[in-house]
Amino acid sequence: MRRYSTDAVRRILLPALLLIALSVWLWTSAVLPGPSPVPPATSAFSPSQIHRAQDYRNLGYAITLAALAAQLLVAWLLALWARPLAARMPAILAAAAGAFAISAAALPFDFWAHRRAVDVGLDLQSNVGWARDALLACAVQAVAVAVVYGLGRIAYRLFGPAGVAVAAWVAVAVFTLVQPVLIDPLFMSTRPLPAAVAAQAAALEHTMGVHLASIRVADASSRTTGENAEVDGLGPTVRVVVDDTALHAPPAQLRALLAHELGHVQRMHTLKGVLWFGVIGVPAILLVLAAASRLCRGRLLEASSVPVILACALTASIVLLPVENLISRRIEAEADWAGLRATHDPAGMAALQRRLAITNLSNPAPPRWIVWALFDHPPVMDRIAVARGYSSPSSSSAP
Ligand SMILES: [Zn+2]
To answer: What distance in angstroms lies between residue 260's CA and the mean position of ligand 1's atoms?
Structure first.
């Protein structure tokens, strides 16, 4: 008995220590500026700009939280009452149907958010176009959950709960790898950068020591007036996608935007995202399986247990949302800093952040608890503060 428990402790302790070491490395490897005092929003925005953004965003936060609550409610109603129905289906189909129903529970709130975005001129999609994309996203999510569940079942049979957690980690890595090739084309078409911007990007890539497969332009202007850019993919598939709405930015601002995105590539953020999933997702999956197993009296592999597993998984993902956002804000701040150190143009970055906040109606003075719960990027005044701080002698002399 004593020998058994020592072995069990050793089996848990070593992976736990490895994950803790990995999380410490991921957290401390971020290269960030020292803290800068955050100036008041009125130092960058007019009272009417602040008022308009807050008017739009404050109800927006409530809609986002209501959508999450609706999904949680539907997930637990299914866990309580839909188990006999799930028992009559193949387990994978039950997983797909359950995931679709849970995603769809957010649709009324998403539609409300869409109509509000149309009213302020941010969203250009018709209701039909919006519905097509929303249903497609639900379907993709349902298929993804069914695939993950199917692989999880095999891993559970072969290796138990730890096998499921490791298989999920591998699945996240594979998904990140194929996203630019298989998933993105479902939602957007892309084209190469215009020649002048491509030359600017190539010069930045050279300065930052970054070599990536491609920088593409997405056809966002048919859907939105908002400006965005993103990095996705892993290793050989890493790429930057810039919305066509951002291309007519003044040159210094477009350069700051490209430098931020290349900062993600330079600091290997998509790879670190996959590693962060291991640190947070692996223990979370073990807890989810332990909770679901207890609620289903150990019969985890039966189709009737699927709604319970989905409800436990959704609960964990919502509880972990503030943690994910904390990590995401740190990653975004690091990309800002990497970009700034490449362009040495704090004015360009501050102007970019200010203009993006105005075009995207970002709240310049959000409540702290909303930042903590929902913001995956630092608030705009934090980012402007970093740019303004860069011109001070102590910061600008940094290597
Ligand atoms: Zn970013």
So the answer is: 6
Global model pTM greater than 0.70: yes
Cα(258) to ligand 1 centroid in Å equals 10
DSSP string, 259-313: HHHHHHHHTTHHHHHHHHIIIIIHHHHHHHHHHHHHHTTT-TTSGGGHHHHHHHH
Q: Where are the beta strands (DSSP E) in the chain?
A: 190-192, 214-218, 229-232, 239-243
**d(CA 194, ligand 1 centre) in Å:** 21
Give the separation between CA 188 and CA 263, rounded to whole angstroms.
23
Cα(186) to ligand 1 centroid in Å equals 22
Instruction: For residue 17, tell me if it sits in a domain.
Output: no
- Ligand 1 midpoint to CA 340 (Å): 13
pLDDT band of 174, cuts 50, 70, 90:
very high
Domain containing 178: what range?
A: 46-396
The verdict on residue 130 lying in a domain is yes
Which two tokens mark 213?
């497969």
Q: Calculate the CA dihedral of residues 166, 211, 188, 254 and round it to 10 degrees.
A: 130
Q: What does R_g of the chain's alpha carbons equal in angstroms?
A: 23
- Measured in angstroms, how far is the CA atom of residue 300 from the centroid of ligand 1? 39
Residue 16 in domain: no
* Count of helices and strands (H, E) across the chain: 18, 4
